[in-house]
Amino acid sequence: MATEIVTNSAARAEVLRRICAAKGGASDEAGVRAAWAGVERGYRRKASLERQAVIELLEDRLRDYDAHVVRVGRGGIAVAVGEMLAKRGKRRMVVPVGIEAELLPAGFEFVVDEGLSASELDGFDGVMTGSTVAIAETGTVVLQNVAGQGKRAATLVPDYHLCVVRVEDVVETVPEAMDRLASTAELPTTFFSGPSATADIEMTRIKGVHGPRFLDVVLTGEL
Amino acid sequence: MSGAVLDPTTSPAFPMAAKAAMGDTQLRKNVRHATEVIQAKRARVVDEMPDWQQLREAGKQIRQHTMENLDFYLEEFERNCTRSGGVVHWARDAAEARQIVTALVKASGSDEVIKIKSMTTEEIHLNDALEAAGIRAYETDLAELIIQLGRDQPSHIVVPALHKNRQQIREIFQREMNLPELGEKPEDLADAARRFLREKFLRVKTGVSGANFLIAETGGVCIVESEGNGRMCLTLPETLITIAGIDKVLPRYQDLEVVLQLLPRSATGERMNPYNSIWTGVRAGDGPQTFHVVLMDNARTEILADEEGRQTLNCIRCGACQNACPVYRQTGGHAYGSVYAGPIGAILTPQLQEMHHAQSLPYASSLCGACYEVCPVKINIPEVLIHLRNKVVKQNGLNAESLAMKTMGMIFRSEARFRAAQRLGRMAEAPLVRKDGQGEGWIGWLPGILGGWTQVRDLQAMPKETFREWWESRGKNGN
Ligand code: SF4
């Protein structure tokens, strides 16, 4: 490959030249950094609610987006997962490398994704993962490519996603979430807020177009 | 309009196209319904936010700062993207961008691509170029699929097929997917699209996307979407080609906390869109292993060079100004003769296209200020419109009007002055009434060139209240 692709250095130089001409000179690093620090950030960057209220807000917002949510203590996860899978009639689930064994109930088939293809993923009833952070105000859960959460395709191709969210990973606002994600910003990251949806047909919200159509969340931990 | 490419260099001027659109009652009904639903949702989720104005201000400052240092941030993005295994290309104009993308697709060894909705690829008519090179492009966003299969053109930057209702969509799908039995419930239609596209997601090896944001600090790319088709296109293929205007860069990862709050609430009235994806270069075992980014100028630097027009580049393509615009809501998007319609199209298109249609598009506005009020990054669209009109007037050498435009510009630069002038109801009225005798009083806000619009509208109550007040109360009465 790459026979026809020459990195076009003339275009690069020309675009940068035009930019500098347009704004009267090139920017220098120190000046840019100082100017960025001067951006007014008068918006809310911290939580304003009690912890209990934050968790309730998340539950509420997730439900508003058609997710099914259950709340359990640490010891009760596997039981809750078993109940949810049974209710949905799911038997054969894919799970990422590094998922904790004690989260997985007996009586179901859990296959670890060690490089499954998209077509293979398409053959599963669903996927089960942990999560990195959740944002109460927007009803959003964030996944990154780490142990227990896995690669992006695994949470995309199967029609059902069961996600475990720990209460200590729940924040109230978007800025708090971005603070937590900053140190791992370069990992592949997916934010999801409810199952896949579209409103392209007469502005009617339709659940599930290409991503998972069904989302269950197990919210776990004591406050 | 169907089938015709929305190219400002060839499409009819706004007043003529608007006149045709005004005669299409189905289209106007569909557009009105869709924009009303989004507007109501938007208002609800914006009202929830006690810090909305501070977010807008931060959004504006971040975007302004980025444009002032665009060279620095683009180079930083390039460095970091390259370090993470991405390949960065630069394109001076649309032709160069088309050529690079076509060559990259060919090099990927594929003669078909799956595509995420991207106004940038619409802007450069990429699909036609791919087709000419023997490459099939499959649009995967539901709205874009409707448009592609219906051989239509997008009419809104966020909801491109809002001018089609479910019966019209059903007919297209029945015909093009060969599904004579297809039902007409939105669920049936979405399901048909799911089945139609899933096979392509699992098979096609090359993806093409736009970008909502490029993050200079990390070299990451961010895409926000709803359906998961975006995730499919940027996760499953072996090669991913992302094309982005040079205006899409954000300084730091932290800045996402501002735009990810502003964009979904403004665009679709959601607190957050169903999916946001952020990826940085390539990662072994997760997603495409070959990743290209094409950074495209295509006249953006010309806009940057125009101090008064520069704020146009701050746009994050949320479409809120389109939904709020009384003119757009009457005419729909195609009349603008460009993939960017509504108020943002009225300022962006003439500037991107060397002032083609400058004679009409900057006039395709009532200057009511609704677009400015909803813009999440506070782009003063009326001010830029006045500036562009001023340019047109200067070209034509009409000095009295030029003076009036300057006054108008001065008023629009201050929201307080604008409101006060509106209440007085006499603002710059006399000099704005065009000499051709079309339009009077407040109708002078809709210059006579917009004949297709004013002739059909009932403007009788206008002199008693400002256009803005009239429009707002009209919306509330639901008529
Ligand atoms: S101009 Fe403002 S309101 Fe219009 S699309 Fe751009 S960001 Fe949104």
Automatic annotation (TrEMBL), chain A:
Boundaries of every LUD domain copy: 124-219
SUPFAM superfamilies: NagB/RpiA/CoA transferase-like
Cited InterPro entries: FTHF_cligase-like_sf (IPR024185), LUD_dom (IPR003741), NagB/RpiA_transferase-like (IPR037171)
Parts of the chain that traverse the membrane: none
Protein name stated in the entry: L-lactate dehydrogenase complex protein LldG
TrEMBL record, chain B:
PROSITE patterns cross-referenced by the UniProt entry: 4FE4S_FER_1, 4FE4S_FER_2
Full protein name: L-lactate dehydrogenase complex protein LldF
NCBIfam families (alphabetical): LutB/LldF family L-lactate oxidation iron-sulfur protein (TIGR00273)
GO molecular function, one term: metal ion binding
Domain 4Fe-4S ferredoxin-type intervals: 301-327
Taxonomic lineage from the root: Bacteria, Pseudomonadati, Acidobacteriota, Terriglobia, Terriglobales
Keywords, in A-Z order: 4Fe-4S, Electron transport, Iron, Iron-sulfur, Metal-binding, Repeat, Transport
Taxonomy, superkingdom: Bacteria
Residues annotated as transmembrane: none
InterPro entries registered for this protein in UniProt: 4Fe4S_Fe-S-bd, 4Fe4S_Fe_S_CS, FTHF_cligase-like_sf, Helical_ferredxn, LUD_dom, LutB/LldF, LutB_C, NagB/RpiA_transferase-like
